[in-house]
Amino acid sequence: MSEEAPEFRKTVPTPxxxxxxxxxxxxxxxxxxxxxxxxxxxxxxxxDRPFSExxxxxxxxxxxxxxxxxxxxxxxEQGYSIDDFDAVGALTAAAVPIxxxxxxxxxxxxxxxxxxxxxxxxxxxxxxxxRGKRVxxxxxxxxxxxxxxxxxxxxxxxxNELSLDFGIVDAQGATVVAIAxxxxxxxxxxxxxxxxxxxxxxxxxxxxxxxxxxxxLH
Length: 218
What we know:
There is one protein chain. The chain is of the alpha/beta class. The protein has one domain: 3-Layer(aba) Sandwich (Rossmann fold). The protein contains eight helices and seven strands. A seven-stranded mixed sheet has the order 3-2-1-4-5-7-6. The longest helix has 17 residues. This is Orotate phosphoribosyltransferase. InterPro entries: PRTase_dom (IPR000836).
C-alpha cells in the first residue's frame, strides 16, 4: 500500500489593509513608505521609554518583514552592499530576530547571507562556520547612554565585551567589517568603535552604522 504525500495548506495572500475595511490609521500605515512604517512602529513602542531591547517591534510580523530590508538598504547607502559581507552576527539576544530578518531579506533578493550569535558561556559563535567570512556584528540599540550593561557603546567601548567578540570572531578566521544597529545614539558624523585586541593590545577602528538615530524616534 503506497503512502500519499502529505498535503500542505497553501498560504492565502493577506488582503491589503485598504481593501478590508481598515481603520484610518491602518490604511494610512499601509500607504507609508517602508522606512516610515518601521519608524512608526518604533516610535509607538519607544514612547516614554529611555531604552528597550525592541522585542515588541522585532517580533511583530510587520517589523520583522521591514527590518531586514531597511537595514540592508542602510548598509548599502553607507557603502556596504550585500557582496561586501557574508554573514551577520547577533551581539546580544535582542539582535537575534534582527539577524533572522536580515537573512530573510537577503534571500528574497536572491542573495545568500548566513547568521550567527555570540556565545559567552563558551566563548564561540552559534551557527554556521564563519571561517574565512566577512561579518557584520548587529545589535538592536547601541547608544552612548549606558542604559543596559550589555547593549551600550559606553560598555562596548570602555569595557571588554566588544574586544572579546572580536577575539572570538578573529580566532574563528573571520573578519569584522562593521557594526550595525537598528537604533544608534552616537553623535559624531562618521562614528566608529575602537576595539582593543585582547591578545596584542592593537587598536582597530570599526565603522558603526545606525539605521535610525535616537533623535528621530523620540
